[in-house]
Amino acid sequence: MGEIWRASQFRMALSLAAALLLDYLTGLPGVFTIVLLLWWLRQYLRGTWNYHHWLQGDGQLYPPEGKGVWADIHDLTVRRIKRQRQRAHQGVQLMREFRHAASALPDAVIILDNRKNILWMNHRCETLLGLNPVKDVGVNLSNLIRTPAFIQWFARQDESCITLPAPLNNRIRLQYRRIPYGHNRHMLLVRDVTERERIEQTRKDFVANVSHELRTPLTVLSGYLEMMQDAELPEWQPAVAQMREQSLRMQHIIDDLLTLSRMDAENLLENQQALDMPAWMQTLAKEARALSQQRHTIELKLQSDQWLQGNESLYQAFSNLVSNAVRYTPEGGQITLIWRTGPEGGEFAVMDTGIGIPRQHIPRITERFYRVDSDRSREAGGTGLGLAIVKHVLQQHGAHLLVESEVGRGSTFTCAFPTRMLRPSAHATTGLTTS
Length: 435
Prior knowledge:
There is one protein chain. The protein is α+β, with helices and mostly antiparallel strands. Helices cover 50% and strands 18% of the residues. The chain has 11 helices and 13 strands. Strands 2-1-5-4-3 form a 5-stranded antiparallel β-sheet, sandwiched between helices. It has a 5-stranded mixed β-sheet with strand order 7-9-10-12-11, covered by helices on one side. The termini are far apart.
């Protein structure tokens, strides 16, 4: 490009010098110079008009050819157009590949704009939701899926999942997940989880039935062991005491299994009420002190007087976290119970200076019967189900559990609740407390 411009400038300078020389030799000052300038102006206006006509859309893909500088501009424009066409072609190919991949998915995929209007969907939406991938594009999703529970869930704008009966068949269970992306765009994924839920329900029923069947004979055995422990049989006392201890531990496991089974069967979103969190915190602190038996320092930090909308099963979840802190904190340690609220929601936290949890175990500690240290857990009297109950209750309430821990320094378990669950105090504030 630089060479062409330099060559053009050289020709212009040479032409101008020739015109001035002719003006001098002919004795007609300015005539040839004016003619040359008018010719240059004509060439410039002609090239500009041609490009303006092409830009307005004359049906030609490439701009008109020219001479000199206009030829260089033509070449640059043609190269840029070819690059843009190549990028556009690659974009079209990628879009086609994405659509083919999305169409091959076993899940239904729906792309929505910020007003919940459908921009695109795959063909799986037709079999799972009864939507037409052609006619329903551009229609608002609320006009197509009218299930009240779905509409309420979608309006909450969170990323949690919800499982509901399929619009076309109540025996089919569909799991909905919304994923925000881009500028106010949403991707809705719908999966058929009927078989998975059937297997899970079969497993839960089996555990519940076995637990019920074991409860009665275990109660009988525990009763006889208690009688033998009270009897004067010195040689049998160690064995009876150990059997009595293990039978009580099995009873606790069965009780927790039945609790999980009951929670699985119940809808914890029903029978909700405003829960007096400041009063609950006082009660939880008393329970912690009773369980600790003065072996730990129990501190209560009430940083908010707001209440919480939820089911009373939340109390058991909080109690499990408190009892775990007492069990796994060595004598002389400190346990802090915290209730706080803010713009992002409410948090119930239990901090301790206990043994801590290795980082690699944290993602799995809420699994049923998962133990970080089996021997230590049995000695502390844990069943391996306490955190599973906590996770289940929080998920049913749309909340989640956060765990921070460092081996040898302690752990912090935080139950994080969305803002929609907070309620103002039903009575006048008596002052936030720290005890």
